[in-house]
Structure formats: C-alpha cells, structure tokens
Amino acid sequence: MSNSDDRYPPVSPMPVHVGMIMDGNGRWARRRGLPRLAGHRAGVENLRRVLRAAVELGIPIVTLYAFSSENWQRPAEEVQGLLNILREALEKEVGELHKNGVQLRHIGDLTPLSDDLKKQIQAAVELTRHNDRLIANIAFNYGGRQEIVEAVRKIVRAGVPPEAVTEALINEHLYTAGIPDVDLIIRTSGEMRISNFLIWQGAYAEYYITSVYWPDFDKDELYAALKAFSQRDRRYGGLNT
Ligand code: IPE
Ligand code: IPE
Ligand code: MG
C-alpha cells in the first residue's frame, strides 16, 4: 500500500518529523471496566497500526512518547506492567517492523532498566539501523529536562569554553542529534500540555490535540492531523506575506 490510496490524498506540506504523545490508555480501559494495563496493551497494539499508517502516509520520522521520566511515580504494579509490555512488544514486533523497513531508535535514559531489557533494546536498534522507510524514535524513560541536563553535562565534561556553546552544539548533544526538529506534536485524549516531551526540539512545533484516546487513534485520525498541519501558517516569529 502507498499514500496513493484515494481516501488519503497527499497533503502538502508534509511534516518531516511527527511526535506523538500516546495518552489516554488508562481512561480507555476504565471506560470499558478493564484494568489500566489492558489499556496499555491496547495502546501497544495500536502503535503497530499507527506505524503502518505512518509508512503508508509517507511520514519520514516519528517520535513516540511511551514512558516519561515522571511515569516512575505511578504504582509499582503499573510500572512493572509497562516494562513487561515493552519487553513483550520487542519480542513480538521487531521482526515485522524490520521487514517493513522501520528503523527503531531509543531516546531517553536506559540506565534504570534491567540488563536484559537494555540488551533487547540495543539489539532492536542494531538490527534495524540501516532501514530507511520510517525512523521511529521510541521515547522510553524520556524527559525533556533530563535530556537537556545530560547534554549540558556532556558539554561541560568535554571542557567546551562558554563562547563555543551554541544552539547547534546543544542540538548535537541531545538524544535526537542528527534528527530535524519536530514539526508536529500530536497528543491524544484531550490534555493540552506537553508533559516534558521534546521541549527543546518542539520550540516551533505545531500542536494537534484530539479527544480520541490513544488505543482508538487510527489512520483517519493521523491523516486529519496531517491535514490540519498542512493548513497551519508557520511564521517562526517572522511574517509570511
Ligand atoms: C499513556 O496513557 C501511557 C503512559 C503514560 C505510559 P495513560 O496511562 O497516561 O492514560 P491516562 O492518561 O491515565 O488515561
Ligand atoms: C505523558 O502522559 C507521557 C506519555 C504519554 C508516555 P502522562 O499521562 O504521563 O502525562 P500527564 O501526567 O497527564 O501530564
Ligand atoms: Mg495520561
């Protein structure tokens, strides 16, 4: 399948880099009288469908917010469940994603994860590193502030003189080094906040918020977000005449 599908005529301009705050799994489950973890499972299932839709619609880069540096504050049972779901998803899905040309990357801090999970993530990144149909950054244990702190630490450790600290240098020390700034940030489930996601890279991102819960966010919804983006007037502080 390609984006020549009649229902999804190409939009212009297309965002190069789309961030997704995959929110609302818990509420999706509660509405069905299910435990929160059932919502997270449905969320991962949906991620598979959304990645396929992203390939079909021709989006080059996506960054998916899966677990924030603040999500450790949730009950231990939910945190453990989310780690298990990540492990299972890697076991089940990486082969297929690789076949479909998806390049998986991780952004965030792997330190607190178990050695097994770290190895599994590194193996998935290594296996898919030459794929070029879609770059999918998985933000797991990611926080925008923590990312900036890490970048500053690396710069200070390298003994860089203050005058040499530039926006470009900071960019090069973020987890997203080499990846263009995010153009469009989609948040599901209606919350109008950024929750520490790509706070540096999203300085001039366009935002799209839908009330749909993440497990129900489908290709039509994604396409609607792309269409809305294509109609925005991005000015970057200047004037478009
Ligand atoms: C998003 O869904 C997934 C994670 C934050 C891990 P939530 O778990 O935040 O779902 P709600 O916001 O409680 O509905
Ligand atoms: C943001 O959602 C993090 C992810 C989607 C992974 P949260 O549900 O954690 O955000 P808040 O707590 O509503 O701001
Ligand atoms: Mg939430």
Summarize the structure.
This protein is an alpha/beta fold. It is built from 7 helices and 6 strands.
Q: Which overall shape is indicated by the principal axes computed on the Cα atoms?
A: globular
Query: Which architecture per CATH?
Result: 3-Layer(aba) Sandwich
Largest sheet: 6 strands, parallel
Strand line-up across the major sheet: 3-4-2-1-5-6
The share of residues in extended strands comes to 5-15%
> Low-confidence runs (pLDDT<50, min 5 residues)?
none
CATH topological fold name:
Undecaprenyl pyrophosphate synthetase
CATH superfamily: Decaprenyl diphosphate synthase-like
Task: Decide which structural class fits the backbone.
Answer: alpha/beta
- Secondary-structure element sequence? EHHEHEHEHHEEH
How helix-rich are the residues, as a percent range?
Answer: 40-55%
Question: What is the average of the pLDDT values?
Answer: 97
By DSSP (H or I, 4+ residues per run), the number of helices equals 7
Number of domains: 1
Q: Number of DSSP strands? A: 6
CATH top-level class: Alpha Beta
Bound molecules: 3-methylbut-3-enyl trihydrogen diphosphate, magnesium ion
Give the termini separation.
38 Å
Q: From the alpha-carbon coordinates, what is the Rg to the nearest angstrom?
A: 18 Å
Q: Any descriptors?
A:
6-stranded parallel sheet, Undecaprenyl pyrophosphate synthetase, 6 strands, single chain, binds magnesium ion, 41% helix, binds 3-methylbut-3-enyl trihydrogen diphosphate, 7 helices, alpha/beta, 241 residues, 15% strand, globular
